[in-house]
């Protein structure tokens, strides 16, 4: 089965013009499935971490958003223990004008600025709001423990 030209172009661009701190490599046996690594942004609790994610392009892509999930355990108010991500561009703010790289940049940006007011992990969000210092320390600890 051949891939739509758009997916081929986006994949080629990800490889020839990689996003700083992000790698996305398609599986050799399924070019719609990507192994992704995102480096934790500087000055965030995730700094120096390397987070593994999976990204899958459904048959309806680009009319529907890619499916993206963290495989590395992470302490973040917008990412649950199954690795699912609460991010507007993956849900109601998806647009076919967006691309794989813009989605991955949005995920990386979410690591820089967690949003405990729109949580997926409620307990983490509560801690982020009520004891920010401890929440950030836990995020750093988990990054050190799971994302190295």
UniProtKB/TrEMBL annotation:
The UniProt entry, under PROSITE patterns, shows: UBC_1, UBC_2
Annotated coiled-coil positions are none
**What Gene Ontology molecular function terms does this protein carry?**
ATP binding; ubiquitin conjugating enzyme activity
Does this UniProt record's set of keywords contain Nucleotide-binding?
A: yes
Q: Which InterPro entries match?
A: UBC, UBQ-conjugating_AS, UBQ-conjugating_enzyme/RWD
This protein's UniProt keywords: ATP-binding, Nucleotide-binding, Transferase, Ubl conjugation pathway
Q: What family does the Swiss-Prot or TrEMBL record give for this protein? A: Belongs to the ubiquitin-conjugating enzyme family.
- According to UniProt, the name of this protein is E2 ubiquitin-conjugating enzyme
Organism whose genome encodes this protein:
Eeniella nana
